[in-house]
Specification:
The protein is mainly β. Helix content is 6%, strand content 29%. The protein has a domain of 50 residues.
Length: 96
């Protein structure tokens, strides 16, 4: 069913179960394709199984935290504060 070529780094949607996944590796010698689902599960498919899937090429999900479902907002660091010390001055201030 699928005529799409598995490209490493590309995202696909399985139309049968509506799951998103990224192709993370291919091995032409073994005829295998390694995929990682958005929820973090990794699976290895053979090329015959790939060709039987109903797939569509899709954009990468905007929410990158999907595979990291056990993260809390504290784990992502301070995204509200300044990224430099309060007493920081412009590096060009010293140049005359």
């Amino acid at each position: 069913m699928s005529e799409l070529t598995p490209l490493v780094g590309s995202w696909y949607r399985n139309l049968e179960d509506d799951r998103l996944f990224e192709v993370v590796a291919t091995d032409e010698d073994d005829g295998t394709i390694e995929i990682q689902y958005f929820e973090s599960e990794i699976e290895e498919l053979d090329t015959d199984t790939w060709s039987e899937l109903a797939l569509e090429l899709t954009a990468a999900p905007e929410d990158w935290t999907g595979p990291y479902d056990d993260l809390s907002s504290d784990d992502m660091g301070d995204t509200e504060g300044n990224l430099y010390p309060e007493n920081w001055s412009s590096p060009f201030k010293e140049i005359d």
